[in-house]
Amino acid sequence: MKVKQILAIFIVMLLVAVAVPFIASAAPGTQVWYLNDTTFSGKYVMDKGSPSAASPNEAGDYVRISAWSTAYWFADEAAQCAVGFPAGTWDGQLWFMSAPPVGTNKIKVHVGYYDTTFHSQGYQEFSPDGSQTLFVMNISAGAFTVPNTKWLMIQVENKYTTGEGHNIDLDTGGSSQSNFTSPGSDPGYPIPELPTIVLLATGLVCVAGYFGFKRRKQGYIKAQ
Length: 224
Hints:
elongated, two-stranded antiparallel ribbon
């Protein structure tokens, strides 16, 4: 093996050795999204990592979802590039101002993204028993990509039939603020974090070095 080949392999190994520990120690990890009662374009906003300062169960700090209707929560900012989420579990806590009534129908919660319509990528539904104000969610979602300039979104459906007492009031403030936690494989919405960029750059450098070396080798052989 020639000196140049040994040098090229050494450089590639050095780049990988430097990049991998950095990526492992600084992976994006999970993000918590808090459902708020602030509206945007007729839909609500969910804030990344920032719960409301309001006291729990404060009057007016909730979202009422009427029987047989749906509420949507946008991420607090649009994706700054195409952001891909691998398949994973979205954990959530849905808090209600009072226990939803017993009913034959259910409350259904989706995770997905919004462009001009909502695209559900996974959901979970449950039937209230008339006594619970907290429902723990574990939504299994498939892999999906939020397109550039579009939004991550949570959808909550009140599937009760229309009738007296079938509205549900979702708590959106204080210590009992409804929230969702993204999977540990979260790429760093709204834009992939620096470790992802470093990994991509390392790969590109390795590929460029490999093909550059091959071209030089082929040119050398032809010159013989």
